[in-house]
Every structure is written in structure tokens, then in C-alpha cells.
Amino acid sequence: MDEAKDTEKDRREADTTPLPFRAAVDALRAARLRPQIEAEPTRPPQRLAPHAYALEAAVVDGDQDLADGRLVLLHDPAGHEAWQGTFRLVTLVRAELEPEMAADPLLPEVCWSWLTGALQARGLTYGEPSGTVTRASSHYFGGLSARPAASQIEIRASWTPREGLGGVPDTAAHLASWCDLLAQVAGLPPAGPGDASVVTLPQRRGPQSR
Fold it and tell me: Which of 80, 114, 122, 132 is the most buried (most CB within 10 A)?
């Protein structure tokens, strides 16, 4: 009985969902990712926009995650002044670093350029980019003093994907660019033959169970 109610609820929600948003979400669901990246839908934020869809992803190597993140697609059919459009992509990307890399004073600027470069490399147009790059270090003492110091980089960003035919942005291409960023932060080699000059972060030193 509950399953039937859930099905009816899903049908009603689908009936009221704008077609451009449905098409944008369908493209995200159908996108093919590089083998090292595992992604799955997750509960989206409820108050940022009338319609939202979210994915969680991780760059996986054996039993450890080299980087992880979340990508959220927001849609407001009435438009949003701050977005300068009806769609917005919001992301969080995290990875652990070697302390020496974390100490590089240019690291925040480099990480931000990876995001914009990933979008530009796929020929994507976008507007109103904003975000932060944060690095944090943890040092252990007392009973935890045997643990090595740990450092983490965190990229939070959002941008407005330009809308194409039917008012729908190419969300699959934006997802591919986001996965390029995720892989780069994880320290994976470039996916394409033309990207050999891209600098990536060293992989983090210890395994972490998922």
C-alpha cells in the first residue's frame, strides 16, 4: 500500500515538474563517467530553489576514496537575479593532500583555475561564477601523536550554465567537467590525450575506508 502511495506521489510530482528541469535531470542520469568515479543520487537541498537534484561522487582506488564531492542542480522557472538565469550548479569537492602541497601559497588560485579550466576545456559557456577554496591542516597530540599530520583542500563553487535549445543547459557536459575537476583534485592522470600538461595533486598518503 505504501509503495502504491509513493508511486502516486512520484507521478504527481513529475506532472508538476517543468520540462526543462526534467530534461536537465535526465541528461545527468544518462551521463557516462570515467571508471574511477562512482556517483549516485542523494537528497537535494530543499530551500535553495523550487526544484533541485543532487549527486554524490567519489574517486575510488581500491578500498580508498581519493576525493569526493557533491553536485547540485537548481532550477527556478521564474529566474533568479543573482544567477542571471533559471539554472544554477552548486558543488563541493574535497581531497586530502600531502602537507608540503598544502603549504603552497598559490594552491587556492590553482584549484580555482582547475574548475574554470575544466569548464573551458569542454567549450562550455557559463556565468556568475563564485566560490571559495579552503585548506585545513590537522596535527595530532597525546594519544594520537603517532598519526601523521593531515591536510585537506575543499572547493565550494557555483555557476550558471548557459541554456540551450528549449531552455535546457547541457548538464551532461557540465557533469563531465565537474568529474574532470574531481579527478584532477584526486591526483588522477588526465583522461584525454591533449591534457598531458595538466598538473594534478599527489594522491593522499593513507587509505580511508568508504
Answer: 114
Measured over the CA atoms of residue 78, residue 177, residue 90 and residue 133, the dihedral's sign is negative
CA 52 to centroid of chain Cα atoms? 14
Cell readout for 165 is 535549445
Q: What whole-number distance in Å separates Cα of residue 133 and Cα of residue 107?
A: 9
pLDDT over threshold 70, residue 49: yes
Instruction: Give the residue extent of every domain in the chain.
Output: 2-193
Query: Can you give the pTM of this predicted structure?
Result: 0.80
Cα angle 73, 76, 79 (rounded to 5 degrees) comes to: 120
SS3 content of the chain, % helix, strand, coil (to 5): 35, 35, 30
Q: Are 118 and 177 in contact (CB under 8 A)?
A: yes
pLDDT exceeds 80 at position 73: yes
List residues bridging with 28 in a β-sheet: none
